[in-house]
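Quick one, tokens below. Sequence please?
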């Protein structure tokens, strides 16, 4: 009788919550100052004109305008174009 009795679920059956990372505002969309544009781990996308980076690498807009993504010397850059 090698049964174990009154055990719960398997010990290693846990996973972390998703962090909801990624692009929040896409190219061509309007933003206001303080709008979060990209949530990321590390600098996958770098801030351009009218953008700034938080301590957790979150990119947010500093001015009102339209978002534009581009490649600059092989790096992804996002900027706000004022209209």
């Amino acid at each position: 009788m090698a049964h174990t009795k009154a055990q719960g679920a398997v010990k290693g059956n846990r996973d972390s919550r998703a962090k909801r990372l990624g692009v929040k505002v896409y190219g061509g969309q309007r933003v206001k100052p303080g709008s979060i544009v990209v949530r990321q781990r590390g600098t996958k996308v770098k801030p351009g004109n009218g953008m700034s980076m938080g301590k957790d690498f979150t990119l947010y807009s500093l001015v009102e305008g339209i978002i534009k993504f581009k490649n600059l010397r092989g790096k992804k850059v996002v900027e706000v174009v004022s209209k």
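Residues 47 and 83 are 19 Å apart (CA to CA). The chain has a mean pLDDT of 92.
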